Amino acid sequence: MSPPILFNPAQHAHLFPSLVLVHKTCITSAPYTIATFLPPLQEDLMASWWQDRIDEVSAGTRQIIMQMAPNQTTGAEELAGKMGFARAMMEKLEEVAKSAGRGLLMLDTEVGSPAEVAYPRLGYIDVSFVPPAV
């Protein structure tokens, strides 16, 4: 597996439709990560949201970390759930944060998600729990 990379709008513009598709898939496929949008999804709104994030990268106010699929023809290899993948992504996140002068990372996740198990294994500590809305 190659190391995670930073999204570069000039080099990776062709990946824009894939960013929307992956985001949509994360929301509509198990374990159903609710990430910014709730079903029913409107692809045009998601595309606009991603364009705004890419504009922030271009302006230097955001970084997007990506892990390219080992098989770039089919993307068939499953990456989710593999600790090496999670570790590599988090190490890249820590590297980017440190280079930006950030000393504290605050992560959030859903109860029962794979991240809830992965983060402590990577050295992160649980500092709070937000109970479900009543």
Automatic annotation (TrEMBL):
<protein>
    <submittedName>
        <fullName>Uncharacterized protein</fullName>
    </submittedName>
</protein>
<dbReference type="InterPro" id="IPR016181">
    <property type="entry name" value="Acyl_CoA_acyltransferase"/>
</dbReference>
